[in-house]
Amino acid sequence: MLTPNHVYQTPNGLTVNEIIIPDGTRWQNEDKAKAAGFKVGDLYKKTLKLCGGTGKVEKVTVHNTNDLENVEDDGEQYCRSTYNENMGSARPHFYVDDVAVWQLLKAGTGMTPSDPVGSAEVGWHAGDGSIADGGNMTSIGVEIIMNDKNVGHDAMAYDRGAKLCAWLLYINNLAIERLVTHAYWNAKKAGKTSSDIDQQCVTYVAKGHWCPYYIFDSKSEAGAKRNWQAFKALVGAYLEALRNPVPVENPFVDVAENRYYYKAVMWGVKNGICAGTDKTHFSPNTFPTRAQVMTFLWRAAGSPEP
Ligand SMILES: [Zn+2]
What we know:
Strand order of the largest sheet: 1-2-5-4-6-3-7
Number of domains: 2
Bound molecules: zinc ion
Helix content: 25-40%
Distance between the termini: 19 Å
């Protein structure tokens, strides 16, 4: 199993395992490189910032890929396969399913030292090569892993995928209209553009990937459009929630809003790290025990098993 380089939390509750392919990584296996259209020694990822080298993110592209049978953490397996040169040329930025999120390329999140703001890089997921204003060159690719027989899996992956997309739009200050599908880029490449973005997102192109297949959940453009709009509405709601978070209600009579520790206490309460000494008192000036200090730290780390 892969060990992520860093693990971080998004403000809307996702834990992301970051294992960004190092700059300068090169193809090593001759057969695998050849099958993917490369040769040994070629760069293993594009190693180029998005949008003409600026690192600006213009869109977020939604994909579906298949659940892997008898695998719990599918994103981990997809990333491991990438590191083992078994994923051809496919390089999305994120994989998300019901249990985990994995990040494989720089997305400019600013959440880890390997992924500073403004560093978003070109992936390989939109099927439109190096077209300057195409999906690979301007957008972040999110693979939502679906089609698992286990009850609840797909609904959970769909929901978590929506949260991830919302957060990526949020940190890049992008409107919901900047959320598009793989099919959107197929259509653009084929010269089929539409002023109705949702329509372009479900425009069928022969030989183009009908993707995100499971979110479309329909062979017809009309059916896919309804289902795509439902997904987009969910992302929109999560985006709104990020932009206008509901303020935490301060239950404590002894924690005034003008104190330096106010935000820290509210954060701790909201995230289940600490509580008051009773329902209305935090007792900010009493000492914690060693047991309490460790418990607060442990909860802040996500209550891991020792
Ligand atoms: Zn796709």
